[in-house]
Here is the input.
Amino acid sequence: MNPTPQPDPKDRPARLTVGVVGAGRVGPALAASLQLAGHRPVAVSGVSEASRRRAEAMLPDVPLVAPAEVLGRAELVLLTVPDDALPGLVAGLVETGAVRPGQLLAHTSGRYGVRVLEPALRAGALPLALHPAMTFTGTPVDVQRLAGCSFGVTAPEELRLAAEALVIEMGGEPEWIAEERRPLYHAALALGANHLVTLVAQSMELLRTAGVAAPDRMLGPLLGAALDNALRSGDAALTGPVARGDAGTVAAHVEELRAHAPQAVAGYLAMARATADRALAHGLLRPELAEDLLGVLAHAADGTEGNTR
Here is the structure.
């Protein structure tokens, strides 16, 4: 028996023409994923040469045009510009009459919900906030990584199903975020993902200074296990000298960092204090050991020698 032929995605109902304003790392990847679902990218705008090359690589044959023309050609417009540029972009598009009634406008900012699109809403647009909780490289691998990626979704109630459907078509998992919680949601992601990159980069630099030839190979299994344990167990996964209350070891760490990487001292102390507070609160760090440890951290912060007994 011959298998039942599957319909071509382009033949599905309600396929949309898609435009991208801001060809950074995010916009072309989302448009390419929508194209795989049968939607049709028709226009993209980008200012820098890097943006233009990225758009040409990920959305070949899609014309590069001005932002207003993107809106003139597309039924769904992805506004993928930096957070601070978004309010001005929306206001400018509305003032020039580029926004059309019934047009879907979706921004990808984590910080903002749909309130930032209020001027476009008054012009008749349909506002969506679709933020992929993922870091982007600006290469085709991003389209693959969208599979299973969570999206922070905010939209008016009447557009909630449409917003969630678009996320699912991009391979993502919609997670509803209330308008007033968007800044907190975004801060949580930045705290984990952005600061993780800084911590890993600093750790690799220190390992090279210590003579490790392949710090990435050394850190890979360790950090992979730490991340997996943290996601599974939360604070119960805390290990290391701070969680154990090894004040002398922490003092030695600070001394070495001051000598070889003074720029890393403030970050080490801040994270050690946060780790100690969490370990204490969850009963992992014994109070009698915490006293010496917190003393070391306090004295290190003001540049004096701590008591390690």
